[in-house]
Amino acid sequence: MLSHGNKIGAIVFACAFLGYQFFIHKIILSGQLTPVTAVFIFVPFIVATGVAIALELGLRLALLITAAITILSLAWVSMFGLPSAIIFGLPHLLTNLFLLWFFARTLKNGREPLITSIARRVHGSLKAELEIYTRCVTYAWSLFFLLQIVVSIGLYVFAPVAAWSMFINILNTPLILLMFVCEYSYRVSRYRDHQSSILSGLQFFSRDKSAAKTTKTP
Length: 218
Known about the structure:
81% helix, mainly alpha
């Protein structure tokens, strides 16, 4: 269970994230991208990317990659000026491309599907039907992220900018939550002894990370 402090931190983060999404949506609709708004939009994304890389590959490599991204971004602005509205879709596109790869790569022959791995860490051994189900859920999440990319590109090409921005900013988080709720609701009704939430999986991954760091510490 999350502690009181962690709950407050999670609420603050959620509010800040939603505020950030609404801010981007407002800037897209106004069509007024300035150096100041560009900083507010892209610095949080670059920082989040750096943190994610640091958790997986270490602080030094994260700093190197983050610095490279920052330098390339500044060079682009220096040569070509501030980008058009399409640049606002990059965080959404890159995030979904990464998540698509992160889930789909575990569906290759000889690998254990990501959701199966999470379920095994939470429950231990799994029945054959649950292994099949968790593989299907991994497929479902991969398809979800693929559809996010396809719909985003389709809306950008064929729909008004306002509709595209609404999808990639305002509707993005609710769609992810809806996916979680639908999968969890079906799982509770279909497999009553398999009712762990995504938080359980995240807690196990967090423990693994902590254990790995402790093991590496001399």
